[in-house]
Amino acid sequence: MQQWKISSFGIDSLELVDGTAGALAAGQVAVRVRAISLNFRDLMVVKGAYNPKMSLPRVPCSDGAGEVIAVGEGATQWKIGDRVAGIFMQNWQDGPPTPAKTKGALGGDIDGMLATEVVLPEGGLVRIPDHLTYEEAATLPCAGVTAWNALFTWAKTKPGETVLIQGTGGVSVFALQFAKMAGARVLGTSSSDEKLERAKALGLDAGFNYKTNPEWDKWAVEQTGGKGVDLVVEVGGSGTLGRSLKAVAMGGTVAQIGVLTGGPDVVDVRPILTKHIQVHGVYVGSKSNFLEMNAALARNTVHPVVGESFAFKDAKEAFRTMERASHFGKIVITNG
Description:
Number of strands: 15
Distance between the termini: 13 Å
Structural class: alpha/beta
CATH topology of the largest domain: Quinone Oxidoreductase, Chain A, domain 1
CATH superfamily of the largest domain: Medium-chain alcohol dehydrogenases, catalytic domain
Order of helices and strands: EEEHEEEEHHEHEHEHEHEHEHEHE
Number of domains: 2
CATH architecture of the largest domain: Alpha-Beta Complex
């Protein structure tokens, strides 16, 4: 087996090493990893920006899919050949989050999926929908589950409502697909007219280039006849949250997911009070959420959007592509 490891922080410091899979402990399952997808969080982990005190070496990446190749004693949920994906937080099976449940995140607290083989507890896996390729399934554990929870756990998105997405990265594109699946209208922002056109091909109802005009919040309000949107899938962080609060309707929801813009911006919180806005932090979700999402994907035969694919040996270039933020949808690393 081979693994990419962070021995010291930085993309150039990633090391491809050979390893030997040990004997399976009771309740464990070995998986041959066929595809891995990247999230912005994975880039932050590799660069040392996510947790500078993280114990090294560490195998990065939370998201991967493959097939079961061995089953340990007492593991009864899986058989050899089953198509599976790992869950983001190995301890969060169901119910609301707790400090204990949110420990054990792949590619952070523990070694992740950027390897040709991994060993996980049998409860740390879900079956992937039959209609998806391994590459498509690898995009689900973080971005897919996060978008699902933003739209349906916190906001309860309904037909006829309006959802605003920011950019065209993994979470935002999933949010677009899920919102259209629910019968909602979707507005989107991007710095690229070309990406907005690609999003329209997926169902985006209207797009706005914030590079040519930064006042996308006013545009969103105008698009809703002065009401504001029902949900903002907020991936920017402090640099965009202020405008999100202006764009959302009274009683609407801001699902705070990402920190792409970073920065020390001071956010005026008064709209939260005066507009009765619900602001929910969304940090992925549980295994139960993953299973609910997979069932919906299968019912509606939704295919995740894979933007670019890289061979396993080219993992560094995949991270550099993530760093350039030039991609649309998900970046995937394949392994046979």
